[in-house]
Design a protein that fits this description.
- The chain is α+β, with helices and mostly antiparallel strands and 645 residues long.
- Helix content is 21%, strand content 32%.
- The chain is built from eleven helices and 35 strands.
- The strands form ten sheets. It has an eight-stranded mixed beta sheet, with helices on one face. A five-stranded mixed beta sheet has the order 5-4-3-6-7, with helices on both faces. The chain has a four-stranded antiparallel beta sheet with strand order 11-10-13-14, with no helix packed on it.
- Helix 1 packs antiparallel against helix 3 (59-75), helix 3 (59-75) packs antiparallel against helix 10 (595-624) and helix 4 (109-122) packs antiparallel against helix 5.
- It is elongated and about 140 Å long.
- Mean pLDDT is 83; it is low at 628-645.
């Protein structure tokens, strides 16, 4: 045994005043009396209360000295030499990827890894330090070059396992950076071995590997996807058996909360099987696949439950269908054909010259100088319209004053300074329509929404202006079309992995974007932020685009489709560069401190001393009060208590 702070033994000198207090007697005030006949007891007290007395055996004195000795030993920090994995400058890479959720060790692999880190902390010497790096999708340094074990343990407590993959290359870069100011560093990798089999560089210093986990019992949904074939969605699901035994599972498929298919799959060891389904409904829906035990759905299927469920999203209108109803307008035809995400169609004239509008539904109808007898119940773009049910159309005016572009989401980046308009119609607008561009209080471009139907209109003919020749033309019409037929803000057909960011392109009139996670956590994106990064949970997310009059929702899924995480079989060795790292054993000599045990022992003795001190006067009084004899009085009691102390 050795003592890390031996100077603390100087505090043992505190035993001297404790002993002196027990040798010091009580002193009383001298009083002259006329006779000592009645004061014989007082005379005996005077003889007994000399300043000092012989030290007698006393339980309280023994306990108090024992408490002092325990505290002095604790402050001296006694320590025993013990074998440890690493000492000196230690950098720990703690695996927090999804596979560390496996429960083949109790309670989980991550908690077992946490115990290994705790053992490393307890084995650090006074001259050692530790850097703790949590390896996840975005690795982070929890604490750097710290020797205080309490701070290290506090940082370890904050470490949490994730549900996604780990970026080991970034983690190795952090570890390499932590060794720059260290001499003879030791890097300890605590993981179940889910590192890339190749491509990882060598690490500076000595590298040690502590494997976590014991089994490979896991079956996973390794793929779930939806695609449209001739406009009809098809579903593909794949299940992989990573265990060493043949398994039978029940695959259940849901559309929303409704179960629409369930089938039993027999999967050989280390193999996979797939399922395809066709002719699914063409409506937007969230699909879920789940595998379970055929005999008991509530029974635990394997050691890793994170990959037993997967989600896929089908968005009904990936390409927006726009119908142009016009007797001929090359500008509009070219514009609709050039806009991304727009599938343009054109209504053909009949033999009598009238326009034939198809019965198929479209996301957007563009009427150029024409209004049919019955308008479709859809969003409309009206260009130089005649009489219509939405607003009043008046006479033509040609005198154009200064153009005014009102501030609105639909006029963003629209420069009207070089645009000229030959003539336009005067219009009278309802309250639900907003004027976007006007001249002398005469609206030229306006838009609004009524009864869930969006309407945008131009009060002039494009061919009677030079707007199609200006840069404002594609910008304005792109804003209007995105407002009338909002595009998908993201590609919902591609599932993300936990921790990946999602790029959003909100519609132009979206005032707020609110994202709801699978567990119900609400995230509100500030204006202008088009990147959502809080995708740590597995499941499906709802993205709500809030406008002044409505809310539109889209969905995306986050799944664990990663063979490195689902294959939970522990690795026997790691390949770093040209070096093979095998599981380590305790070789270096460390110190196991005992001060906590000494401090706890002192606390126990203190509690015993407190009990003895409070019970002793009671025993003395009971001994004095002999049956048939009067109490000796206050003076006698005080004298006996003084002698007893």
């Amino acid at each position: 045994m050795q003592f890390l702070t031996p100077l603390a033994f100087a505090l043992a000198a505190l035993a001297i005043p404790i002993i002196l207090l027990y040798m010091l007697k009580l002193r009383r005030r001298q009083t002259q009396v006329s006779s000592t006949l009645l004061w014989e007891q007082l005379l005996r007290d005077r003889q007994a209360n000399a300043p000092w007395q012989k030290l007698k055996r006393n339980l309280l004195l023994f306990l108090q000295l024992l408490i002092l000795a325990a505290l002095v030993f604790a402050l001296a920090r006694p320590a025993l030499q013990t074998k440890v994995v690493a000492s000196g400058s230690v950098i720990v890479l703690l695996d927090a990827s999804a596979s560390m959720n496996a429960t083949d060790v109790t309670p989980s692999r991550f908690e077992e890894a946490r115990k290994s880190v705790l053992a490393l902390i307890n084995g650090l010497t006074n001259a050692s330090s530790m850097t703790l790096i949590l390896v996840a999708k975005t690795p982070q340094t929890l604490i750097a070059a710290e020797s205080d074990s309490s701070l290290l343990k506090a940082a370890l407590t904050k470490a949490q396992v994730t549900q996604g993959s780990a970026d080991w290359e970034a983690a190795f870069a952090l570890a390499a950076g932590a060794t720059r100011n260290s001499t003879s560093p030791t890097i300890v990798i605590i993981s179940d071995g889910g590192l890339p089999e190749s491509g990882l560089p060598s690490l500076p210093g000595e590298v040690r590997y502590i494997p976590i986990g014991t089994g490979n019992d896991n079956i996973a949904i390794s793929a779930l996807a939806l695609r449209a074939e001739n406009g009809v969605p098809q579903l593909f699901a794949e299940v992989t058996n990573y265990s060493a035994a043949n398994r039978t599972v029940l695959l259940s498929l849901y559309r929303g909360d409704e179960l629409f298919d369930a089938r039993q799959l027999n999967i050989s060891a280390n193999s996979k099987t797939s399922v395809s389904m066709e002719n699914l409904p063409m409506t937007t829906a969230v699909y879920k696949a789940h595998i379970s035990d055929p005999a008991d759905a509530n029974k635990k299927l394997d050691s890793l439950s994170q990959d037993d469920t997967a989600f896929a999203i089908y968005q009904s209108s990936a390409a927006r269908r726009a119908l142009l109803v016009s007797k001929g307008n090359l500008f509009l035809e070219q514009l609709l054909a050039s806009l991304p995400g727009i599938q343009p169609f054109r209504a053909l004239p009949a033999d009598d010259g009238t326009l034939q509008i198809p019965n198929d539904p479209f996301d957007l109808y563009v009427f150029d100088g024409y209004i049919p007898a019955e308008l479709p119940k859809s969003n409309l773009l009206l260009i130089n319209p005649p009489t219509n049910p939405f607003f009043e159309v008046g006479d033509v005016f040609k005198e154009m004053g200064e153009f005014q572009v009102n501030e609105h989401a639909l006029t963003q980046f629209v420069d009207w300074k070089t645009v000229h308009v030959l003539q336009a119609h005067k219009v009278t607008l309802p309250n639900w329509m907003s004027v976007l561009i006007e001249t002398d209080d005469n609206p030229l471009v306006f838009a609004g929404e009524t009864n869930g139907q969006r309407i945008a209109a131009l009060s002039f003919d494009l061919r009677e202006s030079d707007l199609p020749l200006q840069i404002a033309y594609p910008i304005l019409f792109s804003n209007l079309i995105n407002y009338l037929a909002p595009p998908s803000a993201f590609d919902s057909s591609q599932a993300l992995q936990a921790g990946e960011s999602l790029s959003l392109v909100p519609q132009t009139d979206a005032k707020q974007v609110i994202v709801s996670s699978p567990s119900g956590i609400i995230y509100s994106l500030p204006p202008g932020q088009n990147l959502f990064s809080n995708t740590d949970e597995l499941g499906f997310y709802a993205v709500n685009f809030v406008t002044e009059t409505s809310t539109r929702s889209e969905y995306f899924a986050v799944n664990l489709f990663d063979e490195a995480e689902s294959n939970i079989s522990p690795r026997e060795s790691l390949q770093l560069g040209s070096t093979s790292i095998t599981p380590t054993v305790s070789q270096q000599i460390g110190l196991q401190e005992l001060w906590k045990w000494m401090a706890g022992f002192a606390l126990v003795i203190l509690m015993i001393e407190w009990q003895v001190f409070h019970r002793k006067p009671l025993r003395i009084r009971e001994a004095r009060e002999v049956p048939g004899q009067a109490p000796s009085g206050i003076l006698g009691a005080n004298r006996e208590e003084a002698i007893g102390r």
